């Protein structure tokens, strides 16, 4: 009903929810909204990240604490603390208070021509050089009929029976060099397991993971160790993934030491270079993880992932633990470094708006199965599978009036047990379009356009008929039966 926005320990804006979203006055509030990845934003648009970091509250800056990061700040902002006061012209029953000398003009007015009304976007390393076009787009990763099951014991302690968690069940797709491939779905759908199989942290129960034409499950331990420099990970929790007993220099240089790259002096130089790449000063190399914010820790994790010049980075929920302003910085950074180094990403996330902004193509997972695959734009504008449509409908919209008009949940019920998944279509127990055929037959992947396939007996759109998968597009862009 009512929202208060805080920055650096103080309230900077507060009013009724509808009023706040319709007439934001503080630049920080407006910048937070602009930082959110949205489904209606084009992937070509850069997210409006807030520059810099929140202030150190042990050394609070004079004046407005947001002034060093604000595009509206003038001299008085750096000298005096703006009082929290009401907006005399605000509409609504509740008063609209904000603390700013130079606020964003209300929606009923126009922005002044002499200064910006949004925080400027600044990201370190502005000069980006794209990867050479000679290898861009060729297949770098190919998953074929991938299966991963984990044995478990079920039943009472007296009468135990053997069963297995069917985490991944016959998934196939390929990823092109320089591409970002997104995997989305609910918790427990198998997307993280695919990431671990891709990074060779686990071996598949069946099927293959071929990286640069080499089956990672069939090569020797020594060959896999050499291969690991080309396969790196970004983790979901930027704090738990950093050893608290190691300083940044040791953390970032650890891959170099493990792969016996360079001597101590060259490794220290490489650490300074990597910190600069991710927007951190070289002087932080002697600090420890607890001395950084969440966004800074994720940058350290990114620097560690880049240390060996990898070809592929598996990013498992890389921004889910960050607030929206820092999240936008990391997303922009990932895209900038991809252009500069020709990186290939697999981005795993439950946030469809983040994946749409990052990914060229997106695979939708449900209970261990790939149920739809398409380009980001095609998937969100023309979904074929009811589950995909349901996921899209659950994406939060930063519009209170619209959100409160939303009816029943788009995806009903609970995810079935992966130990005993439903017969036929695994989504049928939650699907409003399910019929008898869905329980008897597992739906095959069918083509719904170039590069767009989905597995559903009663899809939201008409498939391409007899063409089936013939219209699908491989990662290298050539037409054929590959997905």
Describe this structure in words.
With 483 residues, the protein is of the alpha+beta class. Helix content is 25%, strand content 21%. The chain contains 14 helices and 16 strands. The chain has helices at 17-22, 27-34, 75-79, 191-198, 221-227, 248-258, 264-277, 294-306, 324-341, 352-358, 376-381, 386-393, 400-403, 436-440; strands spanning 2-7, 10-16, 85-86, 97-98, 139-155, 160-176, 180-184, 206-211, 214-215, 231-234, 312-316, 344-349, 361-366, 369-375, 445-449, 452-455. The strands form three sheets. An eight-stranded mixed beta sheet has the order 10-11-12-7-13-14-16-15, with helices on both faces. Strands 1-2-4-3 form a four-stranded antiparallel beta sheet. A four-stranded antiparallel beta sheet has the order 6-5-8-9. Strand 15 and strand 16 (452-455) form a beta hairpin. Helix 6 packs across helix 7, helix 6 (248-258) runs parallel beside helix 8 and helix 8 (294-306) packs parallel to helix 9 (324-341). The two termini are 47 Å apart. Residues 108-133 and 466-483 have low confidence and may be disordered.
What labels describe this entry?
483 residues, alpha+beta, four-stranded antiparallel beta sheet, 14 helices, 16 strands, disordered C terminus
Question: Quick recap of the structure?
Answer:
This protein is an alpha+beta fold.
